[in-house]
Structure to design on (221 residues):
């Protein structure tokens, strides 16, 4: 295991960057916010990372108390990585970083990889704003389980979740409180801050179904 590197500065930002400032670390956190992932799945959804760097970052993150590794029971019998409570606290950090980077997103470049679930955190941020505007969190009915349908695939979000995975690939594991159907262009516009979810619903670019408070709020916006 590589020695622990440090900026050796008595500053909370520097201490935080000691733990998460290495290249790929926060993107690994982004993937693990979906829940436990196998090494092969992480590698597949982090195009461009080498196997050696990914293995090194995962070891460093485990040492820093951000992740744990456990073996699944048979018939899976594979090791998975998952965030600790400390690691999950990085969600607002990623949300703020994503909001700060909106202006730099620009048009998709020919070399840019894309995965449907990479839109999860920008959409979660946008839907959290809708819930806050309605004056309700998950417990008060302003959040809940949301299924998102794009051309590239399905994923689901847990708006207002205080613990556990905040998103996941595939259909919602249960009846969603709201279902959103939209195209990639609309999702990109929301990610870039060019449109809100409510505006896109009003313009007919997002179709909303479901009986949850969030769905009703979006339809009435």
């Amino acid at each position: 295991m590589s020695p622990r590197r440090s900026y050796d500065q008595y500053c909370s930002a520097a201490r935080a960057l000691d733990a998460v400032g290495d290249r790929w670390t926060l993107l690994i956190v982004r993937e693990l916010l979906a829940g436990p992932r196998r090494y092969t799945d992480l590698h597949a959804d982090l195009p461009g990372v080498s196997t050696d760097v990914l293995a090194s970052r995962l070891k460093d993150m485990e040492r820093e108390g951000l992740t744990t590794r456990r073996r699944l029971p048979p018939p899976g019998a594979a090791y998975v990585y998952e965030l600790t409570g400390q690691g999950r606290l990085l969600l607002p950090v990623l949300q703020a970083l994503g909001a700060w980077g909106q202006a730099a997103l620009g048009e998709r470049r020919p070399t840019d990889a894309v995965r449907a679930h990479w839109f999860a955190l920008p959409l979660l941020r946008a839907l959290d704003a809708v819930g806050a505007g309605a004056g309700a969190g998950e417990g008060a009915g302003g959040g809940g389980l949301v299924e998102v349908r794009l051309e590239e695939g399905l994923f689901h979000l847990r708006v207002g979740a205080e613990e556990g995975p905040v998103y996941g690939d595939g259909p919602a594991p249960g009846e969603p409180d709201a279902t959103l159907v939209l195209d990639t262009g609309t999702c990109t516009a929301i990610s870039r801050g060019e449109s809100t979810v409510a505006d896109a619903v009003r313009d007919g670019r997002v179709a909303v179904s479901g009986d949850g408070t969030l769905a009703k709020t979006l339809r009435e916006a």
Residues 110 and 156 are 27 Å apart (CA to CA). The longest strand covers residues 144-150. The first helix runs from residue 12 to 20. The radius of gyration is 18 Å.
